Amino acid sequence: MDPKMPNRCAAPNCNIYTDKSDVPFFRFPLDSERCKQWLNNCHRSDLEPKTPEELHNSFQICANHFEPSLICRDSTLRTSLKEGAIPTRFDFTSHLNNPSGHKRNKRIREPAEAELASLKKAKGDWFEDDAPSEVKDKPGENSATCDLQQEEQKREDVANSKAKEILKVYFKETLAFTGFSIGNDANPNTDEPMGDHRGQQSLNPICVEKIDQKEVLQFSEDLMREEIRNSLRLARFFSILLQDVTNIEGKDQIPVFIRSVTVAGFPQKHLMGFLPCYADAEGLFYMLLSEIRNKWGLRMEHCRGLTYLTTGGLCQKMKDLTSRILQEFPQVVLAPSDPYAFNMWLIRSMPIPYIQKVVNTVEDVAKIIRGSPDLWERLEVKIKSSYSHLKGEVDRIIEASQNTWEYGVDAFQTMLDILEPFLACINEVCSAANADTATCEQMAKLKPILKNFNFIITLVVLKNTLCCVSILNPSLRGAISISSTLQYTISNALKLVNKHLQEIAIFHRKWFSDAVGRAKKLGVEVARPDESSPETGEAVATETPLEDFYRETLSRQILQYLVAEVKRVFSTEMVRILRWLSLVPSYMADHNFSIRRDKVADANLNNLARPDTFYDELGCWEVKWRHASKRRILPTTVFATLKIPDIAFYPNVQSLLRVLGTIPCVNAEADVYGQYNMVLERYQSYLKATPEDKRLCNMAFVYVNQDVHFNVEDMVESYVEKHIDILQFLHMDDEVIEMQPDAEPVSENDGNHTLKENVQETQEEPQDIPSEMETERVGQPKLPATETNKEALKSALQVAVTAAYNSQSRQPGEASAEQDGEVEDSLKYVSKSEMEEVLRVCEDAVREGILVEVCGQF
Questions:
Q1: Nearest to 697 by CA among 270, 239, 253
Q2: What Cα–Cα distance (Å) separates residue 451 from each residue in 82, 359, 781?
Q3: What percent helix, strand, coil does the chain show, rounded to 5?
Q4: 3-state SS, residue 312
Q5: Cα–Cα distance between 744 and 281 in angstroms, integer?
Q6: CA 221: distance to chain centroid?
Q7: Other CB atoms within 10 Å distance of the CB of residue 333
Q8: Which residues lie across from 253 on neighbouring strands?
Q9: How much is the pTM?
Q10: What pLDDT is recorded for position 789?
Q11: To pair with 263 at 20 to 30 A between CA atoms, which of 39, 730, 732, 812?
């Protein structure tokens, strides 16, 4: 296919176009081997210099060149090829009977010429003499018929192209309106037609009437899914991210995200879909496998990471699900979920109801403080008054309370520090004259929870136990400084937790004493929980001392849980993957550019691109950075290393770093647009902006994955293939518009007549068929479209807009006689009806500009 004509079949002697035929087209494959086979079979030597990516983006082959058994339908929307399909049906002889195509013969390779020579020799002399005469006779006989058919076909092709362009614009505007309304909290409703009073003037009425918006979302979801699937296949390795349960389409579902690293070395995250919560852990396991294998065409053998984030009663179910996945696929590692630090994620996932309640309360306090500037100012004053006698404490606490501190390693320490000042601010904020009602209600609900001894002692115990494992957080985030001491750090953390567990009586006595002192300072009664014990979930023995009760039901359970989870997260596979941080050049510089083979030698062969050259490649990698360190700044992170220009010359190192970048907990350095972090933000925005009864899975999928760019033309072709009659409706509508006479009244004022003609020119709607109104204008001279008329139109537009603005914004009694006179003088040129016409043109222009800007996101 000629690069200037990407809508034509790339096969030689094939004149089928994408916009003139219903024959399906297939792009060249991205796989280099298959792409080479396609190219060799096509005999297109002129395309050999092009890369598989260029061929995939610019060239395609129609279905006529494939065996029918290789073509199948994935669904009612798309036609696809079976895996490994190769085009084999080509015609390399038709150019002999078509002298006009002589110039195209140059692009056919030498084997085709040899075949033609043998064919001519076999057929004899008549092939050279008789056949051309027959070819010359037939065009002469049917020339008139052919001309009519070609002209008719041309008109039909133009009409089809115009109709498809209308569909393309409508689909873009539909997606743009959907994303724009969600982003501006407009509560989008797909049941309400988009061609209402808000957008009817800009949308085609046939499209509004005949096309269901839900179906448009479904088509876009299918195309987005195909693009994401292709991207994941190129990335190869991926990780699964399960987020907290949400209510969508009337039922509780678990959103499933997927993380991978692009060929260019950037992290990417996509929303895959939703899993229902009604199933048990085993049922969720098989549904997740079906989603990944059958719906997305991925292999779980390429999965390298898994994380989950959940609250409430689903904690135990999600823990069982992850255990089942880790058991079935040992190459998968469990990692903490963004945005939580490692120790906070462990407690967030702990299946004890009261622990969950404490973590929820801490997050609620942080959100209230961030959402109320007045509360923060008062809290800052209280912190200064409470800790002014301690040197450096005021600055430390204020700095620790910034940003999203509730997800950090010291969240419970910060909560204890601000607990007393926060309680002191509650009464002040609620009694203020300008107090926000919603904030006061939230603080009133939190006050009895905060002034409870169970809450205080839980904070104290969590603060002291989680500090034992907080030293592991930098290693999971990809900090290269601790790579050399990773095993030592894990051992130290486990030893520290076990020491607390062995000497729990001594440690807990200190923690209990600290909690009692804080409670008395706040005026909180030190008492055991109620008989029902909703906090602990266990029966409370009244004869047990309070200190012993909290030691057994709180401190011991937390420490035992931490030991088990640290061993589960820092498995042998996780330690092996984190050791690959030693391949980052800045780490190598700290160790004299020497890679310890024992740190990377145990790499799983499935993670390597070329296992046979692995050790030789490591030696070249060392030499490269030993010399490069003298003239350039060394990369300091995984993703910075993946972006160096010659990383492809080190395929094994690239593969290991891409696996490391796939792990969910490793810091994802997004590109300049921050697309990776924006995916989860868009998901939260959709949940916040859309009521539960209006949420749709496909709308969430399209909105969250809006950074995925798909071809809208493919969407149009799929829709036309399913709804063939839509083109006929658009053809009929176009014919009605062309034949409809202009019934606008003509003003007797010559200036208005000139304005009307120029407005019609700006709208580009020439009327070729004479109408009754045009017969009345025969006696009126038609002014040419000169620069004077254009300036007159410009002045008329300015006057109309100014007059409309003054009439809307001016209050009664404000306008002076002089202003009224100016308006009247200016309106002599534009009557009321013409002013409405001009304002309508301006409105359409503004709307078109907004749509162009918003549609750019899709």
A1: 253
A2: 66, 15, 88
A3: 65, 5, 30
A4: helix
A5: 69
A6: 12
A7: 27
A8: 246, 276
A9: 0.67
A10: 52
A11: 39
* Domain 225-344+671-704 listed as CATH 2.30.30.100: no
- Residue keyed to tokens 């990471």: 305
CB distance 234 to 658 below 8 Å: no
Which range has the worst mean pLDDT, 253-267, 482-496, 621-635, 685-699? 482-496
The answer to whether residues 524 and 452 touch, using CB atoms and an 8 Å cutoff, is yes
267-276/251-261 β-pairing: antiparallel
Sign of CA dihedral 766, 772, 775, 777: negative
- List helix spans (H) across 523-668: 546-550, 556-569, 572-578, 585-590, 597-600, 614-628, 638-642, 651-662
Cβ contact 23:64 at 8 Å: yes
Write out the two tokens for 605.
Answer: 């062969």
List Cβ<8 Å contacts ≥24 apart for 117-122: 119/93
What average pLDDT score do residues 375-387 get? 91
Could you tell me which of 554, 559, 550 has the C-alpha nearest to residue 495? 559
pLDDT in tens, 28-76: 888 888 888 888 888 887 888 888 888 888 888 888 888 877 888 665 5
Q: Where does residue 43 fall: left (phi above 0), alpha (psi -120 to 50 degrees), or beta otherwise?
A: left
Long-range CB contacts for residues 109-114, cutoff 8 Å, separation at least 24: 109/43, 109/44, 109/45, 111/43, 112/12, 112/43
| Secondary structure element (H or E) that encloses residue 239, with its range | strand 238-242
From 420-429, 779-788, 791-800, the region with the lowest mean pLDDT: 779-788
Angle of helix 651-662 versus helix 614-628 axis, rounded to 10: 90
Amino acid identity of 771?
A: S
Q: Does 455 have pLDDT greater than 90?
A: yes
Cβ proximity of 213 and 190 under 8 Å: yes
Distances (CA, A) of 709 to 228, 510, 551, 713: 9, 58, 56, 12
Asked whether 551 and 504 are in contact (CB, 8 A), the reply is yes
Instruction: Find all residues with CB under 8 Å of 233, minimum gap 6, and list them.
Output: 297, 298
Domain assignments of the chain as residue spans, ordered by start: 25-141, 154-215+711-731, 225-344+671-704, 345-570, 580-662, 750-764+783-855
Name the helix (H) or strand (E) containing 275. strand 267-276
Q: How far apart are CA 44 and CA 729, in angstroms?
A: 40
Burial bucket for residue 435 (CB in 10 Å: 0-12, 13-18, 19+): middle
8-state DSSP, 254: E
Which secondary-structure segment (H or E) carries 374?
helix 373-387
CA distance linking residue 570 with residue 576, whole number of Å:
10
Query: Which amino acid, 463?
Result: K
Is beta strand 79-81 parallel, antiparallel or unpaired with respect to 60-62? unpaired
- Write out the two tokens for 278: 């009604």
Q: Residue 624, CB half-sphere, CA atoms under 13 Å: how many?
A: 21
Alpha helices (H) along 690-780: 697-704, 712-722, 725-739, 750-763, 772-776
Please report the DSSP string for 84-137 in residue order: T-------SSTTTT-GGGGGGGGGB-HHHHHHHHHHHHHH-THHHHHHHHHHHH
Interatomic CA distance for residues 189 and 208, integer angstroms: 14
Structure token pair of residue 611: 């296992």
